[in-house]
Amino acid sequence: MALIVETGGRKSPRSSPGRNAVFHAVAKRTLMAALGHPE
Length: 39
Prior knowledge:
Number of helices: 2
Mean pLDDT: 70
Number of strands: 0
Largest sheet: none
Radius of gyration: 11 Å
Structural class: mainly alpha
Order of helices and strands: HH
Helix content: over 70%
Number of domains: 1
Distance between the termini: 16 Å
């Protein structure tokens, strides 16, 4: 999780709040799916 967020921050450290929220939402859903925990 930390690596995913850190990588995203490097790509767009000043990304807009909306885009940042979407990114984190997708990252969270991807992480949950990877761990086998449906949302």
